[in-house]
UniProtKB/TrEMBL annotation:
<feature type="domain" description="Isopropylmalate dehydrogenase-like">
    <location>
        <begin position="12"/>
        <end position="369"/>
    </location>
</feature>
<keyword id="KW-0560">Oxidoreductase</keyword>
<keyword id="KW-0460">Magnesium</keyword>
<keyword id="KW-0521">NADP</keyword>
<dbReference type="Pfam" id="PF00180">
    <property type="entry name" value="Iso_dh"/>
</dbReference>
<comment type="similarity">
    <text>Belongs to the isocitrate and isopropylmalate dehydrogenases family.</text>
</comment>
<dbReference type="GO" id="GO:0006739">
    <property type="term" value="P:NADP+ metabolic process"/>
</dbReference>
<dbReference type="InterPro" id="IPR004790">
    <property type="entry name" value="Isocitrate_DH_NADP"/>
</dbReference>
<protein>
    <recommendedName>
        <fullName>isocitrate dehydrogenase (NADP(+))</fullName>
        <ecNumber>1.1.1.42</ecNumber>
    </recommendedName>
</protein>
<dbReference type="GO" id="GO:0006102">
    <property type="term" value="P:isocitrate metabolic process"/>
</dbReference>
<keyword id="KW-0479">Metal-binding</keyword>
<dbReference type="InterPro" id="IPR019818">
    <property type="entry name" value="IsoCit/isopropylmalate_DH_CS"/>
</dbReference>
<keyword id="KW-0464">Manganese</keyword>
<dbReference type="GO" id="GO:0000287">
    <property type="term" value="F:magnesium ion binding"/>
</dbReference>
<dbReference type="GO" id="GO:0006099">
    <property type="term" value="P:tricarboxylic acid cycle"/>
</dbReference>
<dbReference type="GO" id="GO:0004450">
    <property type="term" value="F:isocitrate dehydrogenase (NADP+) activity"/>
</dbReference>
<dbReference type="GO" id="GO:0005739">
    <property type="term" value="C:mitochondrion"/>
</dbReference>
């Protein structure tokens, strides 16, 4: 099977650019796809009065797939730093409200990355309701005594409802009013159950309905209704289930469980618990994040972490960085995978989804897990690549087996596995649409240990000579990128 130089795709992709170090990585990842580009960098959001954010969300609804770079949500300090017109709202919040979706975050499991929670042997997919609650609330500071009232005025009747919330005395305090809608909660339930059914995992919803009897009770009731009327028989046929748990009980269970379930959280709970899960599994840099709409066909994929401000400031001064690009790569692979059917799949063997990437070392951000430093034998800038890559004399190597070709390079090989970084969509990108991704695999580990990936790959799939030559040509590209002496590289291979 020979890989094409470029994969033609029918469906365009919405791309949302971002800020700081992730913007640098983003530029390195993308190649010439049919992309509807929206610059959500803070300068452009300010210049367009945030209209670009709204336009990007509407484009996502039209084209069904968006891939988003991390962005800055400005605070007082950022307003001064960037001389902004005003303190713009979170672009993530704006887009989530337009899409009315649920954010699903799931760890990238790595066998060679120790977990802070050793019992987590399976992924936990956390679904965050990305609408309303504290993120659309109205709050105020009360600076004098007086009554706080909650008032609802119906459109079709004069029966106004008034509730006394609190009677402030003395110096005052703070107050908050928030809301959600039946429509959004139903969409949250539908997306959560669809995801659980697709993964064949049980689903848990966590609330505090014992305290917020009406508010959280509404979440519980709608989830139960959607489950009973649309999903119960399907779940039972797959041997999975849905249950409602109190949030405190669910957190305790999550900490001692082995994983392997979908956890549906309200907006704030999902915000907090997704970071808790990310760190427990290894790092925010090892989390996928996909915003799934109720229609099942519209998604927005992004990295779960922020803009990596500290690294960006080092980068601006000309210093070298070691930014972990795994989550950004996965944002692209998830978006491309969703948009790929059937265009990309025809180029990929089913066996490729089972391939692993063999690595020697971990990125610096992961090296402190477990209370020890991993020895990084090679340091590589996250954006380091060469403009000109010399051709590899593969014709002189045809008499060697593929394994002999690789072993002759005298690269380091070990048995620690990082999986499943190379999924089918990403593999297509590596050898077709996005060759630039080759360079971004390098910061993930000791770059020279990537030979182990090829050894694992050739053991998993039998390729013809043309395919082997294509793979080996790309391996020579890796050698050039890491500044391995080419004359030595070539001579050792003969």
């Amino acid at each position: 099977m020979a890989f094409p130089t470029k994969i033609k795709v029918m469906n365009p992709i919405v791309e949302m650019d971002g800020d700081e170090m992730t913007r640098i990585i983003w530029k390195s990842i993308k190649e010439k796809l049919d992309i509807k580009y929206f610059d959500l960098g803070l300068h452009n959001r300010d210049a367009t009065n945030d209209e670009v954010t709204i336009a990007s969300g509407e484009a996502t609804l039209k084209y069904n797939v968006a891939i988003k770079c991390a962005t800055i949500t400005p605070d007082e300090g950022r307003v001064k730093e960037f001389n902004l017109k005003e303190m713009w709202k979170s672009p993530n919040g704006t887009i989530r409200n337009i899409l009315n979706g649920t954010v699903f975050r799931e760890p990238i499991i790595c066998k060679n990355v120790p977990r802070l929670v050793p019992s987590w042997t399976k992924p936990i997919c956390i679904g965050r309701h990305a609408f309303g609650d504290q993120y659309r609330a109205t709050d105020l500071v009360v600076q004098e005594s007086g009554k706080l009232m909650l008032v609802f005025v119906p459109d079709k009747s004069n029966e106004k409802k008034e509730l006394e919330v609190f009677n402030f005395k003395g110096a005052g305090g703070v107050a908050l009013s928030m809301y959600n809608t039946d429509e959004s909660i139903s969409a949250f339930a539908e997306a959560s159950m669809t995801t659980a059914y697709q993964k064949k995992w049980p689903l848990y919803l966590s609330t505090k309905n014992t305290i917020l009897k009406s508010y959280d009770g509404r979440f519980k009731d709608i989830f139960q209704e959607v489950y009973e009327t649309q999903w119960k028989s399907k779940f039972e046929a797959e041997g999975i289930w849905y249950e409602h748990w109190l949030i405190d009980d669910m957190v305790a269970y999550a900490l001692k469980s082995e994983g392997g379930y979908v956890w549906a959280c309200k907006n704030y709970d999902g915000d907090v618990q997704s970071d808790f899960l990310a760190q427990g599994f290894g790092s925010l840099g090892l989390m996928t994040s996909v915003l799934m709409c109720p229609d099942g066909k519209t998604i927005e994929a992004e990295a779960a972490h922020g803009t990596v401000t500290r690294h960006y400031r080092v980068h601006k001064t000309g210093g070298e960085t070691s930014t972990n690009s795994i989550a950004s790569i996965f944002a692209w692979s998830r978006g491309l995978a969703h948009s790929s059917s059937p265009e990309l799949e025809v180029f990929v063997s089913p066996h490729l989804t089972e391939w692993n990437l063999t690595t020697l070392c971990s990125p610096r951000g992961l090296s402190l897990i477990g209370g020890r430093n991993l020895i990084i034998q090679y340091s590589l800038n996250a954006t380091n690549e060469k403009d000109r890559i010399p051709p590899f004399p593969s014709a002189k190597l045809r008499d060697l087996s593929f394994r002999q070709r690789l072993e002759s390079l005298n690269f380091i090989y070990c048995d620690t596995i990082l999986e499943p970084l190379v999924d089918s969509a990403l593999f297509s990108c590596l050898f077709g649409q996005l060759p630039a991704l080759l360079t971004l695999l390098l910061p993930l580990s000791n770059p020279l240990s990537l030979s182990g990936f090829w050894l694992e790959a050739i053991n998993s799939c039998i390729c013809n000579d043309n395919c082997c030559d294509s793979l080996f040509s790309n391996f020579s590209m890796l050698a050039a990128i890491v500044e391995f002496p080419f004359s030595s590289f070539a001579s050792k291979s003969l």
